[in-house]
Amino acid sequence: TPSPTPTVDPRSRVELLERNLRYVQQQHEITLSDLHNEINRLQQENRDLHFRMADIRPSSSSTNKQHKTETVPNLQQLADLSLNEPNLGM
């Protein structure tokens, strides 16, 4: 035989549901704020990396092939750059 369900005062149920909804909304707001902060941080990191890459690229006005060969980053230099970056833990 199924056990009888306890009767709950409708007002109490509504209040509980409203409190739960407010909690979920607060958590949602915190999560959105954290995500926006992470996006801003990643955008800044991306700008910094682009700047660093521009520093090791050869200038387009250079016509000296030897100079170009010396300034083009090789795979080891790019790997070294990535080793110096913080691990995002993803």
TrEMBL record:
Q: Which segments carry the region annotation Disordered?
A: 57-90
InterPro entries for the chain: CCDC74A/CCDC74B/CCDC92, CCDC92/74_N
What are the record keywords, sorted?
A: Coiled coil
Highest taxon listed in the record's lineage: Eukaryota
**Can you give the residue ranges of the CCDC92/74 N-terminal domain?**
12-54
Residues in coiled coil: 25-52
Q: What is the protein name stated in its UniProt record?
A: CCDC92/74 N-terminal domain-containing protein
